[in-house]
User: What shape does this take?
Amino acid sequence: MTYDLLLKNVKAFTTSGPFEGDIAIKDGKISKIGGDIQEQADKTIDLSGKYLVPGLIDGHTHMEFPFMGEVTADDFYYGSRAAIAGGVTTIVDFVTPAKGQDLLSAYEKWSNNADPKVVSDYGLHMIIREVNTKILEQIPEVINKGVVSFKLFMAYKNELMLPDGELYKLIKRISDFGGVTGIHAENGEIINELIQEFLSEGKIDPIYHYYSRPDIMEIEATNRIASIASMIGKDVKMYIVHTSTGEAVDIISSYRRQGFKFFNETAPHYLTLNTDFLKRPDGYRYVMSPPLRSDEQRTKLWIRLASGDIFTIGSDHCVYSDAQKKRYKEEVPPFNEIPNGVPGTENILPILFYYGVKKGIISMERFVEVTSYNPARLFGLYPRKGTIMPGSDADFAVIDPNRKVRISADVLHSNINYTIYDGMEVEGWNVMTIRRGEVVYEEGQVIGKKGSGKYIPGKTPILL
Ligand code: DUC
Ligand code: ZN
Ligand code: ZN
Ligand code: ZN
Assistant: This one.
């Protein structure tokens, strides 16, 4: 047989350790893995000196997300190109129904919009922002469409927040049909009070975004939702998205030790940046929720990432231009008017590799676990995605472990002219991305075609 692609002299990493040899690809799938494959191939790539990992799965992106009066600047084309450039071969984006819209029509709208634009493969989660009979009825129907994970908000009062009773009802219903519930855990009621207090005192600078959302607001909400979900039972599959405090991770871990299927995700910015960034002249760029925290919290997150207590890394890629962040004014607007969100899908790999692996905090096995294997299992994409074995999609990131890069907007691919990591110097960079056997990125150039990404329906989440 003639293979489509043969990868020679591979040093590959999976959750079960490194492997050296060759990988042969046919029809977008891994066909054979062996010590020295001699058969013919249309194309051969020598990967000597590089590290090969499963294509990353960014389980947390908001492309063209209508939120806080703006629509995010990365559409499915720009956003998925940025993903591909960062070695992310699959994104899982949040379908966001409009107020009053039912889930199925929101799903149709999201996929019709994504399909002609995506360069990466993609899966979908469903945000639920209100409860009615139709929405409850449609939960099993959207699960049948491959949307097996949901996101509910405990914050953003008057926009996305749900009261405890509705959170309870939805988690129960999602769980009845085998879905996974993602939770944005912050106490929206109290945060709303704090925002009003600061505004009435004329305290409007970006740093008050942090003061209005203190650590305890996440810790309390995490505790509350874990209590509520634990009451429903041990079949509930739940994960807290973008966890920013060590204490919130520990709450979830303690439930998991009791047999609950509760997990945490964190994001690259919580591992690398702190609240001081909010005090800079461009502090408005660093407004996201939960907010950036102290260095002490950053350290706690790294420790929990290394120990296995943090299950996945998702970027929360939610990009606003400078003009959007400033609401088209010269002056920085009051903190509560700055749309929340930061870019990140392209930064997962260099940040975890440099600050995690190179600095000796996490192993390559752990890197693979949190960036592909665990998200694949959590979102029902495993074993098609998230591993390197015969039959799986041939999705890979190729890391040059010694490549030194100074991060700037110029080397990134989002549809904005800044990055929150400007000037950061890292060692280790994605130099090639292979998606279903096709080289879609090489040395700074995205060559994958617009619309060539595929929708990957989620199946049953596999959480042991
Ligand atoms: N947090 C953000 O920063 N942006 C999007 C939504 C969210 O929860
Ligand atoms: Zn061929
Ligand atoms: Zn959120
Ligand atoms: Zn988000």
The longest strand covers residues 3-14. The chain is about 30% helix and 25% strand. The pocket of dihydropyrimidine-2,4(1H,3H)-dione (ligand 1) is lined by residues 62, 67, 184, 288-289, 316, 318, 340-341 (CB under 6 Å). The CA atoms of residues 237 and 261 lie 5 Å apart.
